[in-house]
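In the design runs reported in the main text, the only information available to the sequence generator was the tokenized backbone. The following block is the verbatim input for one such run; it is reproduced so that readers can re-run the procedure and compare outputs position by position.
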């Protein structure tokens, strides 16, 4: 390893070593081009600093130029000698700004720990030559500490010709250099966001997996990872040959493919899950537009996973400036309308439609920095598709003027637009969010949306201006409603919440009270509390029973739909329950505020401090046998505590599921989502017609033959329940409140503003 000679200007390359011949002549200074391309390979880290209690770290690397983050690596968990082998290409305007490299330890839910930094001075690099670089990491506050090193390979190439012309054109259009630099950096970031294909993985089954429990069985589930994208399957209890039948879609960013990492785990309540094995898929070996059946043996374990993998070309996803968007071009718009016309309803059923989102500007955002300003950027999400704007620095009224285009796979998806404040050395601060169901969008209307809190239950400071267009095929959208909803990437593990548990309990209680009140109403007819009502009920009962036919069941379900439609059309809203849910969520927010204001426990009330003091006493008295006894009791207590927590989470989720299905059935008949109510009318009408004209025995026979032969016809089909899939698209009362637009408040009071601003 040889050190690079210092330049005549005396620039110090502290912490940088470059592999190369020691007698190399200094490179001649070339004429300064308009722009440079910097290609970097982040290879590995060596002897990095320990930041976790386990004696390891979870390192990742950030690259910054002129104070702006231009790259972030993936996180390597529990490794002090991580191997990244990641490549990045950056466009730089000047070589005077060094590349600032920082390493952090990822801590879930906490601020990431600093692990060291170093500078790579770009002026010291030779043009058109790849140099291996070792950066010695240092902490500016403690420069004597050894924090390890990073190995890189850097190539600097001047960009001439077309790049120079494009630069001059940009300079004429953008007078201010800060905007010009931000635009170029956002172009690099824009290309890094766009995916080039879809990887569809169907997890079919496992065979002869390793037993991990005392009963000779396991409770297996599977984790998938492709880059930053992660999925987790459901858990199949007490089996070594699980049948999952689940499908997951990944975005493919690298045209060369990549690797899907797969791990199998055994679920254990109250303790750490057991590792059962791993395997991987090399996507570069699979042909596109073809379904591959893979039997993957598990490494470091036993058994086989059976998967179906399909690689397809990317749908139309793009980021552009406001002046360049396809739906404003009449010819492009006509072609898109033709693609989703009724005549093409059965062509490519997965391609339901397209949505174009114009993110124009925001006003009155919350100040997140000590300077009284923010560095806002905007993230637009549709299911698992995620794109973002560039950052506008030191501004509470940013203008982005960007256009995002997504393909719609499910018309019942919700468009989420979130505004964040970029922070240099820590995770971004939340500024506000809106959630807009695609079916609620008014095409071509430029609207100001009041930003909401993270939970979407109350307002926060600021508004965002959006213009959205949705074009879709109604037949494809209706058919897509009857297949399983797309899963989201792995989210945070559910936690026990007193407020959430109470809310779900109250929701279930309201559903039960509705059934009790209905039963009491029917019973009152038998008790003759109202003679007129009892006479009408008796006559109705006799007529229906005397003339009853099976087709009357779906026909009867059409009656409340028609009745509620007439009431809503006449101006009478039957959806008072949503207001009650809104009041409940407001009360819940107040409870959270009270909890935040509660005094923090003292040192003797903190369990960790008590343990620390107890351990110090035991160490000083040398009662090792007492320490072992306390540790054993504490471990047993913690296992019981985790088991109770798992039970509480299960009860919390079960209450939410029961309440949600009850509310969704009600909201179907209440016309909360007209598209779904019309779809229910069509389905009930078809069912009534079929039952009326076709004898019941033929219907049951056809259903049974289909069920018995389904696996013979398609052994790897994914089972689903069309009714539950339909109900999963209907919003619950909580979701109705979350998706409801807030009225813009031009002059909020200071107290209300303080309350609604999340800390």
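Verbatim output:
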């Amino acid at each position: 390893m040889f050190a690079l000679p210092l330049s005549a200007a005396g620039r110090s390359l502290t912490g940088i070593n470059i592999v190369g011949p020691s007698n190399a002549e200094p490179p001649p200074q070339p004429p300064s081009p308009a722009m440079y391309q910097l290609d970097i390979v982040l290879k590995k880290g060596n002897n990095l600093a320990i930041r976790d209690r386990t004696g390891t770290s979870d390192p990742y690397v950030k690259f910054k130029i002129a104070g702006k983050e231009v790259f972030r690596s993936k996180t390597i968990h529990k490794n002090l000698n991580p191997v990244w082998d990641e490549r990045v290409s950056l466009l730089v305007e000047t070589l005077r700004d060094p590349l600032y490299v920082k390493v952090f330890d990822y801590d879930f839910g906490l601020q990431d720990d600093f692990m060291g930094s170093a500078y790579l001075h770009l002026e010291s690099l030779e043009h058109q030559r790849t140099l291996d670089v070792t950066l010695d990491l240092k902490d500016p506050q403690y420069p004597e500490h050894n924090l390890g090193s990073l190995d890189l390979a850097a190539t600097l190439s001047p960009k001439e010709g077309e790049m120079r012309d494009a630069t001059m054109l940009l300079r004429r259009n953008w007078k201010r250099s800060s905007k010009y630099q931000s635009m170029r950096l956002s172009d690099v970031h824009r290309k890094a966001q766009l995916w080039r294909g879809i990887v569809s993985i169907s997890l079919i089954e496992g065979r002869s997996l390793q037993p991990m429990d005392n009963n000779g069985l396991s409770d297996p589930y599977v984790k998938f990872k492709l880059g930053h994208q992660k999925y987790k399957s459901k858990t199949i209890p007490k089996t070594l040959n699980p049948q999952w039948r689940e499908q997951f879609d990944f975005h493919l960013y690298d045209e060369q493919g990549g690797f899907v990492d797969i791990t199998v785990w055994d679920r254990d309540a109250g303790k750490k899950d057991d590792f059962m094995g791993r395997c991987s898929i090399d996507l570069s070996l699979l042909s596109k537009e073809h379904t591959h059946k893979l039997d993957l043996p598990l490494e470091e374990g036993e058994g086989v996973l059976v998967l179906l993998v399909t690689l397809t070309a990317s749908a139309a996803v793009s980021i552009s400036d406001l002046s360049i968007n396809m739906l404003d071009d009449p010819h492009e718009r006509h072609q898109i309308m033709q693609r989703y016309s009724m005549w093409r309803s059965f062509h490519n059923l997965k391609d339901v439609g397209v949505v174009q989102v114009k993110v124009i500007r925001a006003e009155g955002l919350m100040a997140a920095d000590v300077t009284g300003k923010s560095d806002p950027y905007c993230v637009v999400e549709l299911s698992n598709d995620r794109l973002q704007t560039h950052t506008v620095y030191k501004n509470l009224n940013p203008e982005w003027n960007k256009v995002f285009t997504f393909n719609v796979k499910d018309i019942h998806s919700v468009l989420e637009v979130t505004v964040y404040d970029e922070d240099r050395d820590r995770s971004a601060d939340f500024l506000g969010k809106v959630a807009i169901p695609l079916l609620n969008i008014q095409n071509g209307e430029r609207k100001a949306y009041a930003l909401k809190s993270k939970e979407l239950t109350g307002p926060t400071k600021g508004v965002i201006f959006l213009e959205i267009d949705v074009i879709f095929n109604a037949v494809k959208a209706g058919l897509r409603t009857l297949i399983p909803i797309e899963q989201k990437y792995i989210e945070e593990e559910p936690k026990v919440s007193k407020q959430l548990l109470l809310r779900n309990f109250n929701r279930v209680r309201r559903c039960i009270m509705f059934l009790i009140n209905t039963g009491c109403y029917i019973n009152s007819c038998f008790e003759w509390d109202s003679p007129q009502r009892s006479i009408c009920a008796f006559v109705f009962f006799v007529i229906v029973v005397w003339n009853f036919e099976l087709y009357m069941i779906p026909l009867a379900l059409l009656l409340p739909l028609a009745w509620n439609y007439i009431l809503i059309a006449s101006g009478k809203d039957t959806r008072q329950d949503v207001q009650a849910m809104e009041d409940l969520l407001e009360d819940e927010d107040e409870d959270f505020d009270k909890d935040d204001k509660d005094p923090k426990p003292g040192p003797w009330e903190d369990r960790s401090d008590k343990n620390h003091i107890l351990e110090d006493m035991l160490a000083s008295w040398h009662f090792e046998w007492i320490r072992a006894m306390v540790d054993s009791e504490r471990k047993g207590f913690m296992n019981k505590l985790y088991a109770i927590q798992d039970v509480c989470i299960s009860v919390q989720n079960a209450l939410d599921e029961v309440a949600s299905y009850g509310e969704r059935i009600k909201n179907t008949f209440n016309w909360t989502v007209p598209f779904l109510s019309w779809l229910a009318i069509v389905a009930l009408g078809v069912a009534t017609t079929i039952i009326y004209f076709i004898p019941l025995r033929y219907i049951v026979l056809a259903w049974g033959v289909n069920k018995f032969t389904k696996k013979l016809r398609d052994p790897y089909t994914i089972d689903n329940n069309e009714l539950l899939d339909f109900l999963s698209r209907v919003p619950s009362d909580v979701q109705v409140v979350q998706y409801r637009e807030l009225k813009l408040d031009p002059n909020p009071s200071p107290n209300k503003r303080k309350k609604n601003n999340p800390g």
